[in-house]
Amino acid sequence: MKNIILITKREFLTQVKKKSFIVLTLLAPLLLAGFIALITFMFKANETQTKLSVIDKSGIFTTQLKSDKDIQYTFVPSETEKSLLVALKNVEDMDGVLVIPANTDNNLDALEKNSKLYVNKKLGFDAQMKISSQLSEVIKKEKIKKLGITEAELMALDQKFMIATENVVDKAKQDDNFAFGVKSGMSMSLMYIIFMFIMIYGVRVMRSVLEEKNNRVVEILISSVKPFELMMGKILGVTLVALTQFAIWITMSVVAATIFNKSYTPAIAQNAENPMAKIGGIKEILTLIFHNLLSMDYGLIIFVFIVFFLLGYIFYSSMYAAIGSAVDNETETQQFTIFGILPLILGMYGSFSIMNNPEGPMAFWLSIIPLTSPVAMVARIPFGVPVWQIALSIILLVIFTLGMVFIAAKIYRVGILMYGNKATFKELWKWIRTS
Questions:
Q1: Which residues pair with 50 in a beta bridge?
Q2: Is 357 left (phi over 0), alpha (psi -120 to 50) or beta?
């Protein structure tokens, strides 16, 4: 045990003392926020207002077609149609001419069919859809008016039915659309973090073992420590590195959430259904997001995240350590690493169904089966998971992790000193049985 602690300490200190670790740990949240802001800016920077000259010969659209930040409508006399179409080829401050024919026979279907938009460049898909939608809305209102329905009655017809739902077992499970979106975002984020860190740090362990084996450094090391102690020291050392990063990021997130939550007011809560449209300010949106995060049982979420990462990482990194000890170069690892990647990918993509039905059978089994539970359980936890399911999943994962460590140790014990012998599944099975 003493040797395991010494090797773990060495691996941990070697990693955390690197400048890259410090920079990545402290700046990663800021870089992520900056990346999101950059993407948002790029979308905003690519937005342009489409300027259209409208010739409305029907007289229906003049008062009903309104300009906004995306589309600017300028109504012009019908006599200018020919000159506008000629000038459209060379005019830069006009993107198109919308010609709406006369509604002589009161045939709205024919009016819709014969309307035409002339442009001098390719319009964006969103702009085309918005123009069509606005025109269709006007036509729809006119058709309803022909049926003798008033504007007030029309608004009443368009009003959505909002059903009030109450869970008699757990009222806390009921979320509005925004809260559900926040939980879905957190679910995907936790899932991807677990997946990426298990893959990145697992492969790091494999490469470290492979490098020491090729450099024959391991021959010196195992003269002082047992192969099992060396393998577990490496795994636990890298595990502590990842947990240190998580601890710092979780602390930063909780502090940021607490600061933003101080600005939370009931007025912001009233805009929870559509904060982008009704609030508009990024500060209010972040306040609402962080308030919803703090309203969850974030203590349980953090606990489940840490436990399942820890067990999942030990499980898969033991597998990767065994693979690194059994081969002589990275090319040979490809035939074995697929067994460590496929279950994680299956758990990750299978977890997308959790968003639609967090309590469904697929969500349950993915979060219980040890091969996929490190990814699937953290994807479920923001939506709420019964305690007995969490306990059952942890127990099964602990059993499978101990089993994998036992198997990996047997392979590692023999494979770490094997050179020039290409490992096969038959050979690995022989090592497991005889070592």
A1: 71
A2: beta
